[in-house]
Here is the input.
Amino acid sequence: SKIRESILEALSSSDNSYFSGQELADQAGCSRTAIWKHIEDLRSSGFMIESRRKKGYRLLGKTDELNENNLLVGLKTETLGRSVLFLESVESTQKIAHRLAQETAPEGTLVIAEEQVSGRGRMARSWHSPKGTGIWMSLLLRPSLPPQKAPQFTLIAAVAIVEAIKDKCDLDVDIKWPNDLLINGKKVTGILTELQADSEQIHSLIIGMGINVNQSAEDFSDDIREIATSLHIESDKTFSRAGIVQEILSNLEKYYAVYIKEGFEPIKEIWEKYAVTIGRQITARTLNKEIKGFASGITNEGVLKLIDETGETHLIYSADIE
Ligand code: BTX
Here is the structure.
């Protein structure tokens, strides 16, 4: 809200000085009681704000800092994220993860950055990754599987992220096949699974996850403002990114183990619960054609099944869906 922003702007405008409730109220154009209420809300969303009698309020810090420590303290996984590389600013975490994969980085290595200056999506599209507001990370896995299985990992990651957002932010997220997560029809997350493989076997699999967390609408560039959203925009709360990352890694570790043991089917069932693409009339745009039809489900491999008006079933491996 405007009041929150005004308070935060004032409190962060100078290091170490106090602002009285009255000063904050004047600046925000509201009552002192409203200020007090908003300060409480800010605290519950992770801002450490000190209040002293006769002095006022002072911002001590934000728990939403991302660093290796914050990511490791409280991490519940055995392997995923145990080796973490945190960077301030990178071109793309995917690029770095690819390089580490060629070296001897262990399974579960996580590359995460405050900012990406050329974050990427599928098919050479770009992914807007402004500083300090979102989760921009790439996870390295080394499953012994043939390369055709790689797309399933996008769906596994989708389920892990949806459930993490549900738990940590109490928000319902829909999956749009294959790699978008939406809230109220707008994109909150994109997933990009890439691999290094030969024709028989995956050497490394890199799952890139971009999650809009604390952005306000103004933080999005004009070209995506209409289609993008953030967890903050949808809930009016500010979230600890480290907490969300940890939850995603726990979920991913759990589902990865299920997948290795029992295959894709159990994951598919959960995925379908969250998918909006299924059971609808859609248009799938692939690289070389456009097919309209009814999305009847996904196969046990994670491939989309589309029935066109003649009743013919098409298997869609990769496409943009409308
Ligand atoms: P995609 O190709 O499905 O989506 C890319 C499209 O999404 C863009 O063309 C644009 O319209 C829109 N878009 C761009 N940035 C955002 C944003 N922040 N929020 C919502 N919509 C946006 C999706 O590709 C896969 C994205 C993966 C991003 C992660 S971040 C960590 C890792 N590093 C990296 O370079 N990519 C991955």
Q: What stands out?
A: Residues 241-262 form the longest helix (22 residues). Residues 156 and 267 are 7 Å apart (CA to CA).
